[in-house]
Specification:
6-stranded mixed beta sheet, 4 helices, alpha+beta, 261 residues
Length: 261
C-alpha cells in the first residue's frame, strides 16, 4: 500500500519486533516461545536493512588508524528505542576492536551488519557433569574456581552487510564475542527483552580457559565416535570475569528516522 511504502524500514522493523516478542517470556520459557511466522517476517525485514536506511555513513577506513586510542572508546552505541519488550540500537566498532565474550540471560537477539565485516564466536553454557573442573594453564586462584562454567563453542562465522542476521536465543548461541574484521564495522542490535539487572538480565563477561589436561589418544574411532569426538573438541571452560579494562562503550547520536512504538 502507498502509505506503507512511506513508512521507514526501521519503523517497520521496530513494529515487527514488538509484535514478535510481546508475548514472549524468554526468561521463563526455555527457548523464548517465539512464534515462527512472526519471527520469520522480522528476519526478512532485518535482512534487508542497510546503513543508508538509518542515515549512517561508513567512515573512511584509514590503513594507519589501527585500534582505538586510549581516550577514545573502542565501541560506541546509537540508541534507537527501548520498551519492556525489546531494545534496538546500533553498535559501531572501530578498526581492530572487539566486543568481549558476554552473555544475554533469558534473552533473544539479532545482530545485522550495516557496514564492514565482523567475526562472531558463539558459545553456550553446559550443565557440568564434572564435580571438579580440570586444571588450567595458567592455574586459577581457589576463589576463581567458583566462577568457572563448562561450555561449548557452537559456531564461528563472519558476517557482512549482505549476510542475514546472526541470531541468539536463551538456550542457543547465547554467549558471543564480536570482532571487527579488516576495518571498522557497525551492526543493528535487537534484544528481547532488554538487559535489566533488576529482572535478572545483567551482562556478564567471560574468558575462554585453556585446560592443562586435554586428553590425547591415538586410538581408531568409527564415524559416530568421530562426531562425538568433534563435539567434545568444541567443549571447554569459561571463567566469568569483570568487564575487561580495555573495553568500554561510548554513546553517539542516532541520525536515522525516528521510531515510535
Amino acid at each position: 500500500m502507498p502509505r506503507d511504502n512511506k513508512t521507514a524500514l526501521i519503523q517497520k522493523i521496530a513494529k515487527q519486533a514488538f509484535t514478535t516478542f510481546k508475548d514472549c517470556r524468554s526468561a521463563n520459557s526455555g527457548d523464548g516461545n517465539v512464534v515462527s511466522d512472526k519471527f520469520n517476517e522480522l528476519i526478512s525485514l532485518v535482512t534487508s536493512v542497510r546503513a543508508k536506511d538509518l542515515k549512517i555513513v561508513p567512515p573512511k577506513n584509514k590503513p594507519s588508524s589501527g585500534a582505538a586510542g586510549p581516550q577514545s572508546p573502542p565501541v560506541t552505541y546509537m540508541h534507537i528505542c527501548e520498551t519492556e519488550v525489546f531494545s534496538m540500537g546500533v553498535f559501531l566498532l572501530k578498526a581492530g576492536t572487539s566486543i568481549p565474550l558476554h552473555d544475554h540471560p533469558g534473552m533473544n537477539g539479532m545482530l545485522k551488519v550495516l557496514y564492514g565485516r565482523v567475526n562472531v564466536r558463539c558459545f553456550d553454557k553446559l550443565e557440568s557433569s564434572l564435580t571438579v573442573p580440570p586444571c588450567f594453564d595458567p592455574p586459577l586462584a581457589p576463589l576463581q574456581m567458583a566462577a568457572v562454567w563448562r561450555s561449548v563453542l557452537r559456531s564461528v562465522a563472519e558476517y557482512s552487510e549482505n549476510s542475514g542476521p546472526c541470531l541468539l536465543t536463551p538456550v542457543r548461541d547465547n554467549l558471543h564475542q564480536i570482532d571487527a574484521v579488516d576495518g571498522p564495522a557497525a551492526f543493528l542490535d535487537i534484544l528481547a527483552p532488554p538487559y535489566n539487572p533488576d529482572d535478572g538480565r545483567d551482562c556478564h563477561y567471560y574468558k575462554v580457559l585453556q585446560s592443562a589436561t586435554d586428553p590425547v589418544t591415538g586410538a581408531k574411532v568409527d564415524q559416530e565416535q568421530l562426531g562425538e569426538k568433534k563435539e567434545k573438541e568444541n567443549e571447554g571452560w569459561l571463567l566469568e570475569i569483570p568487564q575487561p579494562e580495555d573495553f568500554w562503550c561510548g554513546g553517539e547520536p542516532y541520525p536515522g528516522p525516528v521510531v515510535a512504538i
